[in-house]
Amino acid sequence: MNEFPSGETELSSNKEKLQNIMVGELESSRVAMQFIPKDADLRALTIEGDWRQHRGDYASTNYSPLDQINKENAKDLKIIWRWKTDNFGAKPEFYFKVTPLMANGVLYTTAGSSRAVAAIDAMTGETLWTFRFDEKERKAYVPRQNSGRGVAYWTSSVKGSDRVIYITPSFQLIALDAQTGHLIPDFGDHGVVNLKKGLGVSADPLTSTIGSTSPPIIVNDVIIVGASFPVGLAPVSKRQVPGNIMGYDVKTGKQLWIFNTIPQKGEEGNETWEQGSWKYTGNAGAWAPLTADPKLGYVYLPLEAATGDFYGGHRPGNNLFSQSLVCLNARTGKKVWHYQLIHHDIWDYDLPAPPILADIIVDGKPILAVVQLTNQAFAYVFERVTGKPVWPIEDRLVPKSDVKGEWTAPTEPFPPSRQLMIGKAISMISLLTLRQPLKRRRCELLSNIKSDPAIHLSVFTIHQM
């Protein structure tokens, strides 16, 4: 029972021999060890810097001033722990694009196709808590079933009351206690807000295919939510839910405001949806992360195209506020200014990245600026208080589509050449720098494409970069 050898052995009366006898010796791996308590590590945790916003700060700069790791010692870094997401979903997710946040030495991330939330000790990699929300029958109508891009973090004025805020795949807003991972009982309906019910339009609370892969942004205690949809290359219908932007109170979950990205009757921009197309057209959401200036109280929205990435004959007009950079008052949701960067998009150009706030000097004058990058590899720069372009933007005449039933805008905005992210449109020769047998097939496809350096070739340029 005690694993000592059985049987009897007569002992010697010699004391020296008795002292050398190893009684009941076991293999070394099974020898009982004397318990020696470790000294408690009472050193204060040193946190050189937090990362509490998706892009590092409200300005979306992706910048950290920390300099302990630099170009000289980066080669010497070693992995000391690895946290895996394999079991957060029915099968491993291989397209993991989350940016974990860090607050007070704890990492907060989403994980797996169920978009579970986890808190991780940044020093050891230990899982501190996890949270998984069962979406039940709503799962069948999720537009993008993945882990998303992460969570938002709210710092409370009451110690120990910080919150983690995130959006589930089926478009529900959830508030968790940052210390425990428990739902906040006095937020919304026991910690949950059904965002589909707050869209302000006729959207089926179960079957409408709207969600969000990006985390919300929290500005001056207001949670601001964007939206994403199924991939819109060839939608099954011209009808879709609009990606309206919504604001919620971070303490109660109460809805504060709605901004209609597709203006309704009587609203500014409604006239840019000809033939009543505003009634059924959707999308025009902000699927990319948002940016804010808390001092101004403004939030900046990079809005996408309206329904139909590559065809817009069913929605004639310039289609405000699709493909626009929009500045809202974060507290009220009222529009401060906007600038449409693509009129009536039929190329899926989108505004694919959060705007970047920068304080710049132009001709000796300091300017509070906002920079928006586009899928055309353009960079548009505006004064972020007024929306006035820092450098002139030219509306140029562009070719008219000859696709049957299509509607195209006569002009499109172009920034100065200094703000082009690429040097020149891609040429036929560079398109064909592929090995056989792809060259011949590429030539056949391109022979049927009508292209123009002003607009269309930039599509190929991006795809080749």
Topology:
Elements: H1 15-19, E1 101-103, E2 106-111, E3 116-121, E4 127-131, E5 152-154, E6 163-167, E7 172-177, E8 192-194, E9 217-219, E10 222-225, E11 245-249, E12 255-259, E13 291-293, E14 298-302, E15 324-329, E16 335-340, E17 356-362, E18 365-373, E19 379-383, E20 394-397, E21 411-414, H2 428-431, H3 438-446, H4 457-464
Antiparallel strand pairs: 1-2, 2-3, 3-4, 5-6, 6-7, 7-8, 9-10, 10-11, 11-12, 13-14, 14-15, 15-16, 17-18, 18-19, 20-21
What does this structure look like?
The chain is mainly beta and 465 residues long. It folds into two domains: 82-421, Quinoprotein alcohol dehydrogenase-like superfamily (Methanol Dehydrogenase, Chain A, 8 Propeller); 422-465, no CATH class. It has helices spanning 15-19, 428-431, 438-446, 457-464; strands at 101-103, 106-111, 116-121, 127-131, 152-154, 163-167, 172-177, 192-194, 217-219, 222-225, 245-249, 255-259, 291-293, 298-302, 324-329, 335-340, 356-362, 365-373, 379-383, 394-397, 411-414. A four-stranded antiparallel beta sheet has the order 1-2-3-4, with no helix packed on it. A hairpin with a 5-residue loop joins strand 15 (324-329) and strand 16 (335-340). The chain is elongated, with a radius of gyration of 29 Å. The N and C termini lie far apart (70 Å).
Instruction: Count up the domains.
Output: 2
Number of helices: 4
What is the N-to-C succession of helices and strands?
HEEEEEEEEEEEEEEEEEEEEEHHH
How large is the share of residues in beta strands?
Answer: 15-25%
